[in-house]
Amino acid sequence: MNKLNILFFAAAVTTAIAGIIHVVLGIPSNNLNSQVLFVVGGATQIFWAVPMIRKWGTVWYGIGLGGTLMFIAIWVITRIPDNFITGRGGRISDNGILVEAFQIAFVGIVIAILVLDRKSFSKKEGNAN
Questions:
Q1: Would you list the DSSP string of 37-99?
Q2: CA 85 → CA 53, 78, 90, 99, distances in Å?
Q3: Which pLDDT score is estimated for 111?
Q4: Among 67, 65, 85, 68, which residue's Cα sits nearest to residue 77?
Q5: What tens digit of pLDDT does each residue of 39-54 get?
Q6: Burial letters 34-48, b for 16+ CB under 10 A, else e
Q7: Which parts of the chain span the membrane according to its record (predicted)?
Q8: Where do the structural domains in the chain lie, given as residue ranges?
Q9: Which of 23, 32, 53, 112 is least enclosed by beta carbons within 10 angstroms?
Q10: pTM value?
């Protein structure tokens, strides 16, 4: 297994784990908005393991990257006191930190994939510097 394949596998695992935790946290929520966000967003993250494993291409990786960055931004914003989403600062839990760690890892891995994939494409096309 080459380095790029390992990165694709790692990206799939990190997004799937973050998604599983989101779904597990979202199902028992008493707040319908939170429940929908966590369950739908988590299911999407679980699904996103497929484009990573099957290497569907840079558009898919970019969409996954953007969606994950949005999830991270929502978490950060909702932790700020008097924020414009909830009006109060949410607590920082162990589960939240765990999810954010997996999401940040996914972001880093996808960026590495995009960089390495571009380099390997350039070499194949004879455009390497």
A1: HHHHHHHHHHHTHHHHHHT--HHHHHHHHHHHHHHHHHHHHTTSTT-TTTSSPPP--HHHHHH
A2: 34, 7, 11, 20
A3: 97
A4: 85
A5: 999 999 999 999 999 9
A6: eeebbbebbebbbeb
A7: 36-53, 60-77, 97-116
A8: 3-125
A9: 32
A10: 0.89
